[in-house]
Amino acid sequence: MLKKRVEEAVNAQMNAELWSAQFYLSMSLQLSSEGLPGLAFWMRKQQEKALRRASQFIEYGITQGAKLTVNDIIDIPQEFGNPVEIFEYALVHMMRMTDLIDILVSISKAEEDNATVVMLHEFVSRQVEDEAEISQLIVTLKRVGDGMGLVWLDDKLHAEK
After folding, report:
1. What CATH number corresponds to the domain at position 20?
2. For a Cys-Cys bond, which of 8, 38, 84, 145 suits 157, CB 3.0-4.6 Å?
């Protein structure tokens, strides 16, 4: 059984991940509408990761006897700017998600919930990897500019499909 504070934090993280999935989908749709299927595909992968994380929090909460509830998903932005701005916006969002996971770790430690702390180690590691990946993509986007370099990068990301 999860202590109340941990249960609330797990529920909040689950809802943050569900919101995050919609956020990445919105970015993906903008990139797709701008004829950048590779960049759009990369954002769709982020959406899928967020949904998997939400599912992991759901499964964990259920196995721990938590009462989870789904919040309304509101205020999803629809316009993000050019590709560099989109990815910078996504990086800021990723860093916020990292902060939320760190808060959940802190709450779990304060409540002496070692099982939750151990479960969260995987999330902490993945956030580090994801932030490094998107940071490198931003550097590359800035280097290639809007011309043929952007087409090359988009094709490269689309080939990973």
Report:
1. 1.20.1260.10
2. 38
Query: CA 76 to CA 26: how far, in whole Å?
Result: 7
pLDDT tens for 59-98 read 999 999 999 999 998 999 999 999 999 999 999 999 999 9
Each residue's pLDDT tens digit, 36-62: 999 999 999 999 999 999 999 999 999
Structure tokens at 14: 């689950």
Torsion sign (Cα): 76, 81, 87, 88: negative
Q: Which residue has the tokens 């550097």?
A: 139
Domain that holds residue 55: 4-159
Q: Cα 127 vs. chain centroid, distance in angstroms?
A: 8
Predicted model pTM: 0.93
Q: What is the 3-state secondary structure (H, E, C) of 22-80?
A: HHHHHHHHHHHHCCCHHHHHHHHHHHHHHHHHHHHHHHHHHHCCCCCCCCCCCCCCCCC
Burial of 151 from C-beta contacts in 10 A (0-12 / 13-18 / 19+): middle
